[in-house]
Write a structure and sequence with these properties.
alpha/beta
Length: 627
C-alpha cells in the first residue's frame, strides 16, 4: 500500500497586462505609474522565494494596450526586436499563457509573429482554424490544452512527479469584435461547452490537476450559450481544480473589508476564494496585482487531490503605502524597447489650438469626443464623394475611451494645447480600430443611443448627490452621435444590459431625438461613420449586418488622426455643444468621480454648473452636477 504524500504548489497568475511593462505612462510621458509588470516582477520573485514549487501563468490581453505594445512592434517603426511583452515574459520565465480578446486586434499575422518569440507555450481551446468548415473538421489555432510535467518537492523533501493540465479559453465574441481580421480564418466556440468536452480529455491524457486559464469575468446571471463572462459556470464543471479568470479587470477575491455587490451570491465566496466551490483568482489589470494561489496536495494511490487552498491578490500599490519598486534587472532589460517607444511617441506631428480632455465626457458634450467624430466624418465624406452615398446625411459615432472607472483617477485623456506628438494622438484614440461607413436608419440610430445610455444609473427625481454612473458599465460604451440632437432621461431605467439584452422593453431614455431640428423618423436613411469594434457589435451594441457596410478603412483611425494632424492644426468643432444633454430633473443633483486634474479647467466645470466636493479614497475628484 502506497504511503500518502503531501506537497505544496503555488500558482502565480497575471492577467490583462495590456502591455503595461514599466511604470511609465507613454500618453502623459511621465514615469512612476503605480502599476506595471516591472513592479509585479518584484512580487513574482518574492513569491517564488517563499515556496519551492511554483508555476507562473498569464491569462491573456497581455500584448495590446500601450504604445510599447501597439506601436513599437508594428511594421514601420525602427524597433528591430520581437514583441516587447513576449520578451519580458520570457525574462520572467512564464510557464504558460492563454490569449485574451485584444490579442486579435492587429490580425493573425501580427499575432503569430508575436507568439513566435515566446519561450513558453500558449493554449486556447475554443478557437479553431477556418470560418465555415464543420466543427469536426477544424484544427485548433493553438494547442487546446497543455500538459506541464513537473517534478515537485513534497513535504518530506522528496521529488514527486506532477502533471498540470492547463486549458486556455477566450470569449467567443472575438469572432464578432475582430470580424475584419478573423472572418473566414478562425472560428470561436462557446467556452463552457468547449471546456465540458476538453476537461475529460485532459484528464485522460494524464493530467493530475486541471487549471482553467480562462480569459473571462464573473457574471452572476444563469449560464447561456456564448456567454462572455463565464467564470462561474466554468468553475462548476466537474474535474476543474482551479480557475484563473480575467477580462473584466476586476479583483477576486476581494479583501473582506471591501466586498463588492456580488458577494451576496452564495456561489461567490471572497472569504475563501471560491467560485462555485472551486479555488479561483482574478488579478486586476495593467500589472496592478499578482494572483497567488497556494494548493496543498495529497497523493493517495497515485492520485493527486487538492485538500486545502489559499488564494489572494498581492497589489503593486498597497493602500496607504509606497508602491512596490520595480525589479531593477527586469527594467534594465527593457530599456532598448522603452527607448524605441519614446522615440516614436515623442515624434512631432502637429499643433493643437485647445486643450482636450475626457474628465467630464460622461457629463456633457465633450471636445475630445467631438474631435474624433469630426475626423471620422471628414474621412468618410472623402470616401463617398462622387457616389450616390454622398447624398445621404452623414453622421458620426464616437466615445471617450478613457473615463476613469476601474482604470483609476489617471485613466483619462488629457491633451494640452500647443505642439502635438504621436503620444497625444494615441491618447485621443487608444484602441486599434478601423473606420467603418454604415447605412443606417432612424430606428437604428435610436436603438444605438439607447444602448449607449446604459452607462448611467437610474436617478430618482429629487434625489441629492446620487451617483451618475452605473459602475458595472464601462464609460467607453457611451457613444455620442454627432449630427443629431437628443436628451437622455435618467429617470427611466436602462433599456438594455451590458450584454445587449433587452431588459426594460417599455423604457426609453432617449427623448427629443432630432436631425436638423426635426424629429427623427424611424425610416429616415443615413450614412454613419463609426469604428470597426462598435460596428461589429462590441459592448452592448448590435452587430451590423454585412449589407450595412459600405467601407472599412485599411488604416487604423489613430493613423488617420496622425495624418490629419500633420496637415491641419487640431481645433474644436463649432457645434458639438448642442449634440446631447440630460433631460431636466429639477431639484436633483448627481455626483461624478473624475480625475483631479479637472480642477485645472474651471471653465469646463462652470459650463456644467459642476461643483467640486473633494477627493475620494480612491483618489478621484468628486463633483456635484445639477440636473
Amino acid at each position: 500500500m502506497q504511503a500518502r504524500v503531501t506537497a505544496q504548489l503555488r500558482l502565480l497568475c497575471t492577467t490583462d497586462l495590456h502591455a503595461h511593462l514599466l511604470p511609465y505612462d507613454y500618453f502623459s510621458d511621465q514615469q512612476d505609474c503605480p502599476h506595471g509588470l516591472a513592479r509585479v516582477a518584484t512580487l513574482i520573485r518574492a513569491a517564488r522565494s517563499e515556496m519551492h514549487n511554483t508555476v507562473l501563468l498569464d491569462n491573456g490581453d497581455a500584448l495590446q494596450g500601450t504604445p510599447l505594445g501597439d506601436i513599437t512592434p508594428q511594421d514601420g517603426s525602427d524597433w528591430g526586436g520581437g514583441h516587447p511583452v513576449i520578451h519580458a515574459m520570457n525574462q520572467l520565465g512564464y510557464d504558460a499563457a492563454t490569449l485574451g480578446n485584444h490579442e486579435f486586434n492587429f490580425g493573425l499575422d501580427w499575432l503569430c509573429r508575436a507568439l513566435a518569440g515566446a519561450q513558453f507555450p500558449f493554449t486556447c481551446a475554443n478557437v479553431t482554424m477556418g470560418g465555415c468548415a464543420p466543427k469536426g473538421g477544424q484544427s485548433p489555432f493553438l494547442s487546446p490544452y497543455l500538459l506541464l510535467r513537473r517534478r515537485i518537492m513534497d513535504d518530506a523533501g522528496n521529488m514527486q512527479p506532477l502533471t498540470l493540465g492547463v486549458i486556455g479559453l477566450v470569449p467567443a465574441q472575438i469572432a464578432t469584435w475582430d470580424r475584419m481580421h478573423l472572418h473566414g480564418r478562425l472560428r470561436a466556440h462557446d467556452m463552457i461547452e468547449t471546456a465540458r468536452t476538453v476537461v475529460p480529455q485532459v484528464r485522460a491524457a494524464g493530467a493530475d490537476l486541471i487549471v482553467l486559464l480562462a480569459h473571462t469575468g464573473i457574471d452572476t446571471r444563469p449560464a447561456r450559450a456564448m456567454m462572455e463572462n463565464a467564470a462561474l459556470p466554468l468553475a462548476a464543471l466537474p474535474g476543474v481544480d482551479a480557475i484563473m479568470a480575467g477580462h473584466s479587470h476586476d479583483i477576486f477575491p476581494r479583501p473582506v473589508a471591501n466586498l463588492d455587490q456580488q458577494s451576496g451570491q452564495s456561489c461567490i465566496d471572497h472569504t475563501r476564494g471560491l467560485l462555485n466551490g472551486t479555488p479561483a483568482l482574478m488579478a486586476g489589470a495593467r500589472g496592478s496585482h499578482l494572483g497567488v494561489m497556494d494548493l496543498t496536495l495529497r497523493r493517495t494511490g497515485g492520485v493527486w487531490q487538492v485538500i486545502r487552498h489559499r488564494t489572494r491578490v498581492r497589489p503593486t500599490a498597497p493602500p496607504a503605502a509606497t508602491p512596490i519598486p520595480g525589479d531593477p534587472q527586469f527594467s534594465a532589460d527593457l530599456t532598448p524597447a522603452h527607448t524605441a517607444t519614446l522615440r516614436l511617441t515623442r515624434k512631432p506631428i502637429g499643433h493643437g489650438t485647445a486643450r482636450l480632455h475626457s474628465y467630464l465626457a460622461l457629463a456633457g458634450p465633450n471636445a475630445s469626443v467631438a474631435v474624433i467624430n469630426a475626423l471620422q466624418r471628414r474621412c468618410l465624406a472623402q470616401v463617398v464623394a462622387g457616389t450616390p452615398d454622398a447624398d445621404l446625411p452623414l453622421l458620426s459615432a464616437a466615445c471617450a475611451f478613457k473615463t476613469g472607472g476601474i482604470g483609476g483617477p489617471l485613466n483619462y485623456t488629457d491633451v494640452p494645447a500647443g505642439p502635438l506628438s504621436l503620444r497625444h494622438a494615441a491618447d485621443l484614440y487608444s484602441f486599434p480600430n478601423k473606420l467603418c461607413g454604415l447605412h443606417v436608419t432612424g430606428a437604428d440610430l435610436r436603438d444605438w443611443l439607447e444602448r449607449a445610455a446604459i452607462c448611467f444609473a437610474q436617478i430618482t427625481p429629487g434625489a441629492q448627490d446620487a451617483p451618475l454612473l452605473n459602475p458595472s458599465i464601462p464609460g467607453h460604451d457611451f457613444d455620442v452621435i454627432d449630427g443629431l440632437s437628443y436628451a437622455i432621461d435618467l429617470s427611466q431605467p436602462a433599456r438594455y444590459d451590458h450584454a445587449g439584452t433587452l431588459i426594460n422593453a417599455r423604457s426609453r431614455r432617449i427623448t427629443d431625438l432630432r436631425h436638423n431640428g426635426r424629429p427623427l423618423a424611424d425610416e429616415a436613411r443615413f450614412l454613419l461613420a463609426s469604428n470597426s469594434y462598435r460596428a461589429s457589435g462590441g459592448g452592448p451594441f448590435m452587430a451590423m449586418p454585412d449589407s450595412a457596410f459600405i467601407y472599412t478603412s485599411p488604416r487604423l483611425i489613430r493613423d488617420l488622426l496622425v495624418a490629419d494632424l500633420t496637415d491641419t492644426p487640431l481645433s474644436l468643432p463649432t457645434d458639438f455643444l448642442h449634440t446631447w444633454r440630460f433631460a431636466p430633473l429639477p431639484g436633483t443633483t448627481v455626483t461624478l468621480d473624475t480625475g483631479p486634474a479637472v480642477l485645472d479647467d474651471p471653465q469646463a466645470l462652470t459650463a456644467l454648473n459642476a461643483t467640486p466636493i473633494g477627493r475620494t479614497k480612491q483618489g478621484f475628484m468628486r463633483v456635484r452636477i445639477p440636473l
